[in-house]
């Protein structure tokens, strides 16, 4: 449940809400909400539905929130690394072309001498 608490904390921060704001909206004490965020308190289904509604999402969206963001982060990192790899491959091809050109120049020089 700690990961769920982290997701709830992240959502709260994205909304710019304090723990007090959320606790009031859920009609619970600040310490009770803090225990939800830290994973000390397990959340029952009705509280989970209440929290999901507060953040304007379904229970499934709440439970999977940030999992897709994490995947998007990995995809983004993968795209960056793929681009860097393509740049390096182009650099290697350019260097190979220079080596071939230099080899041809040396060969021509030997033939003309």
What does this entry look like structurally?
This protein is mainly α and 113 residues long. It has 2 domains: 63 residues, lambda repressor-like DNA-binding domains (434 Repressor (Amino-terminal Domain)); 38 residues. Helices cover 82% and strands 0% of the residues. Helix 1 packs across helix 3 and helix 2 packs across helix 3.
Give the total of domains.
2
Please outline the major beta sheet. none
Cα-atom radius of gyration: 28 Å
* Number of beta-strand segments: 0
GO molecular function, one term: DNA binding
Domain HTH cro/C1-type: 8-62
Coiled coil: 71-98
Keywords: Coiled coil, DNA-binding
Provide a short characterization of the protein structure.
Pfam families: HTH_31. The protein has helices at residues 2-15, 19-26, 30-38, 45-54, 59-64, 67-112.
Task: Please outline the helices and strands.
Elements (H helix, E strand, L loop, with lengths): L1 H14 L3 H8 L3 H9 L6 H10 L4 H6 L2 H46 L1
Helix pairs in contact: 1-3, 2-3
Features:
113 residues, mainly alpha, 434 Repressor (Amino-terminal Domain), 2 domains, 82% helix, rod-shaped
